[in-house]
Q: What sequence folds into this?
């Protein structure tokens, strides 16, 4: 369901809930709906309840009035609250009467509509119960329509062969994620993947085998990505993964996991018989460096992927270097960097005076900490070997930079402590 359709469904639920409350003249009412992937119910609509109650109430099936109604899938009309099946500690009602009805879809409890505190002080009656049951049916119909719309939306944005997201979803999410990365000042990484020798598989063994190879790649990708990443079949034998809040190091870890899972993939018998292995070429780029927008990010990752393919497959990173030229240069490299020296306790060497040599904006951007100076050489602790950070720091400060690496949390804690003015909290 698109945003407009979702908004219409929500508006309709608002109207139905309001009408239900007015029809039975209730002062307090709640609509609880079952939470996604859970058996618990949370408040979706409420009248006469404090905001903190709305946010924190969670009802389990079988517990309390609403929980009992959901479990039994039968309505409950109570004229005298003292005889109601309310568990100890659940709370009390101002009036002596309330009514609660289930919302059932395909014999599954999906919600509970409850009203109490009738305005005229009289108890609710059978007519009120029947009215709320009718309204509950309308709410159920809206929920079904909402779910069908969401299911259609998912199908419209899912590749039917691999069950990964399709290009349509990718374009929409990439634009949203680049905008979010700019607002939050976070990095965003993109992987572009291509299946090595895929055309030969199709030509030699047929498209059926090619489809099985694509499914095997999709399985490897799904097993390797993080929970909040966006795995996509970009087109043909090309795949893409959007990685929010990821730098090249995090993206490379995901890429290596994809290669590992691909190496373990179950291949079609035709390929097993000739001892073929599943090879991938993977390109990585980050936003907003080197790419300044979504289109440039795709182009940079795609170019890195083709460089990887020309080099025989594997992983290639497209990295930004602020030290070359007025706007910087883009250069391609592999991830086989020689390790920098490791510094176990950066706080022991870092001083507040040393931090004055490095602009705070740059220190924050790279999580960099100055731990020493020898003439025109600064020793700088970084979370990992990072040529781009070294280039940037050298250009801005005018010093030669000798990098070491330390635990990222230790660097950040020390940097913030030394930047905090004396006496500040």
A:
């Amino acid at each position: 369901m698109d945003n407009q359709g979702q908004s219409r469904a929500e508006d309709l639920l608002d109207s139905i809930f309001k009408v239900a409350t007015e029809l039975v003249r209730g002062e307090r009412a709640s609509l609880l709906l079952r939470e996604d992937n859970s058996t618990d119910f949370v408040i979706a609509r409420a009248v006469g309840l404090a905001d903190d109650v709305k946010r924190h109430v969670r009802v389990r099936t079988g517990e309390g009035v609403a929980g009992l109604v959901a479990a039994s899938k039968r309505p409950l009309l109570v004229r005298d609250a003292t005889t109601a099946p309310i568990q100890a500690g659940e709370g009390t009602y101002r009036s002596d009467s309330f009514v609660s009805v289930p919302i059932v879809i395909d014999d599954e409890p999906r919600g509970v509509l409850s009203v109490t505190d009738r305005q005229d002080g009289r108890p609710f009656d059978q007519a009120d119960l029947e009215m709320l049951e009718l309204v509950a049916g309308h709410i159920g119909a809206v929920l079904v329509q909402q779910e069908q719309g969401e299911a259609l939306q998912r199908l419209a944005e899912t590749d039917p062969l691999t069950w990964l997201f399709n290009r349509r979803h990718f374009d929409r999410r990439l634009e949203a994620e680049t905008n979010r990365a700019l607002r939050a000042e976070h990095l965003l990484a993109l992987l572009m993947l291509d299946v090595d020798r895929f055309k030969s598989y199709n030509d030699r063994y047929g498209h059926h085998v090619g489809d099985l190879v694509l499914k095997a790649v999709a399985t490897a990708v799904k097993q390797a990505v993080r929970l909040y990443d966006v795995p996509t079949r970009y087109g043909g034998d090309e795949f893409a993964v959007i990685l929010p809040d990821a730098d090249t190091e995090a993206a490379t870890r995901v890429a290596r996991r994809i290669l590992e899972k691909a190496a373990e993939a179950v291949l079609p018998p035709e390929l097993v018989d000739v001892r073929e292995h599943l090879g991938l070429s993977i390109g990585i780029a980050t936003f907003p460096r080197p790419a300044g927008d979504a289109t440039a990010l795709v182009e940079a990752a795609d170019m890195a992927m083709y460089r990887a393919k020309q080099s025989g497959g594997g992983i290639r990173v497209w990295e930004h270097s602020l030290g070359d030229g007025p706007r910087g240069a883009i250069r391609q490299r592999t991830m086989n960097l020689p390790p920098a020296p490791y510094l176990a306790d950066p706080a022991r060497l870092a001083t507040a005076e040393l931090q004055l040599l490095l602009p705070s904006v740059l220190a924050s951007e790279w999580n960099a900490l100055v731990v020493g100076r020898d003439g025109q050489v600064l020793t700088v602790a970084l979370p990992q070997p990072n040529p781009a950070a070294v280039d940037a720091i050298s250009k801005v400060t005018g010093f030669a930079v000798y990098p070491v690496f330390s635990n990222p949390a230790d660097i950040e804690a020390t940097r913030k402590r030394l930047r905090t003015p004396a006496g500040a909290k």
Q: What stands out?
A: DSSP finds 14 helices and 15 strands in the chain.
